[in-house]
Specification:
With 420 residues, the chain is mostly helical. It contains 15 helices and no strands.
Length: 420
């Protein structure tokens, strides 16, 4: 049975998944399209969030040593809600400042995301014992897409529903009107407030005592009889941290090309309706739930490193299907496979990275992991719009698949070397 603090943390994660990953994830890019912006600026908005996320990760880790992971995590969720609520107010801003407003609001959300995600990992590590961590992390990775499934369905239906409530006839012309999308995004921001409440209800957690084989840095000065250090982590913790950041960067670079531009691809390239985009996104999120929840069983059978490598290769295959077959069915299948494989490997990768170092390094490891992810994801979001304009969606998604394979290869070489 997971502790009260873990359950509250998961409640906050569910609210985040519903509002941010679900409703907002479906509607934000479609809203920007209806404001008259194209793929390049949409990529820039996403990149501004990811860049703010990236540069804030080191500070997010450092703040944990002063304020504690819980306090910084709560502040982060509050900033995510603020950024999400400010962005759709852009239409009341003078037109000459609207682009800057969109970028600034997106960046504020990215700052909050860094504070929340970087400190959520060590918080959850501290709130669980070693034997329950795989289950707690996989529960989080399963719960977020489950909530996002519901949020995606709601997000796809909200613009039409709000248009009817406002007395606007619903047809193809009115669904090009940004007004219903604006109110839907404001509602999504308000739905983040329960996540703030749930995190406020938690208590500061202590770091549980961990087995000697897990706490790789705890035995400094107590070398074995051979005179060699007990682990690579004792000698070179920062080398490990940088390596994990590199692998995380390649993983997220591959995934972000699909995640950032998938709904733009459906709307712009395949002419898919908003409601159907929401449904496809929701189904993909739902498929990710059993995949994420199966992670502990897969880890117990094959080990974490094998699950990470195999899942990454499955993700690359799914991205290739999305890239190479220009149909709605292939797009849905490829996106669902990408999300499922990414969710499966993410919980395993987070626990793997945290257990490489001692508790004193966990916030730094989480910050580096998230920073590596943010650097490459922001790069791909920014340049993805240019790639689409110059080379098309197919080449962008193939690039994402290639980066995913490269990340799996780097991680596989490290895990084999570590095991020898």
């Amino acid at each position: 049975m997971l502790s009260r603090d873990v359950r509250l943390y998961l409640t906050g994660a569910a609210a985040f998944g519903f509002a941010q990953e679900g409703v907002r994830g479906v509607l934000l890019n479609l809203y920007l399209l209806r404001l008259g912006y194209g793929p390049r600026f949409i990529g820039l908005v996403s990149a501004s969030s990811l860049l703010a996320f990236t540069v804030s990760c080191p500070a997010a880790g450092a703040m944990a040593s002063r304020k504690g992971s819980r306090a910084v995590m709560i502040s982060g969720m509050g900033l995510i809600a603020a950024g999400s609520g400010l962005l759709p107010l852009v239409e009341v801003i003078p037109e000459s400042w609207q682009e800057e407003w969109l970028l600034a609001a997106s960046a504020l959300g990215g700052l909050g995301l860094a504070l929340y995600l970087v400190n959520g990992i060590p918080f959850l590590m501290g709130a669980t014992r070693q034997e329950e961590r795989d289950h707690a992390f996989s529960a989080q990775m399963g719960l977020v897409p489950l909530a996002a499934f519901a949020g995606s369905l709601v997000g796809g239906a909200l613009p039409g529903l709000l248009a009817r409530m406002m007395g606007i006839p619903v047809n193809s012309a009115t669904m090009d009107n940004p007004e219903p999308y604006r109110y839907a995004l404001l509602l999504a921001a308000a739905l983040l407030l329960p996540a703030v409440w749930a995190l406020l209800a938690t208590k500061p957690v202590r770091v549980w005592p961990v087995p000697a084989q897990e706490d790789l840095g705890q035995h400094r000065g107590r070398a074995p009889a051979s005179g060699k250090p007990r682990s690579v982590a004792e000698r070179l913790p920062w080398a490990l941290i940088l390596l994990i950041a590199l692998v995380a960067g390649l993983r997220y670079a591959g995934q972000s090309t699909t995640r950032t531009f998938f709904n733009v691809y459906l709307d712009d390239e395949l002419g898919t309706s908003t409601a159907l985009i929401g449904t496809i996104t929701a189904v993909a999120q739902l498929v990710a739930v059993p995949a994420a929840l199966a992670t502990p069983m897969l880890v117990a059978r094959w080990s974490r490193d094998r699950v990470i490598v195999a899942g990454s290769m499955g993700q690359a295959l799914s991205q290739s299907v999305l890239a190479l077959v220009p149909s709605l069915g292939a797009a849905g299948l490829g996106y669902a496979g990408t999300m499922a494989m990414f969710q499966t490997t993410t919980s395993a990768f987070r626990v793997y990275s945290q257990e490489l170092v001692s508790p004193r390094w966990r916030a730094s490891m989480a910050a580096a992991l998230m920073m590596g992810a943010g650097v490459t994801a922001s790069f791909m979001a920014f340049f993805g719009g240019f790639v689409i304009t110059a080379l098309g969606y197919t080449n962008l998604f193939l690039l994402g698949a290639g980066l995913t394979v490269l990340g799996a290869a780097v991680f596989g070489m490290f895990s084999r070397q570590k095991g020898t």
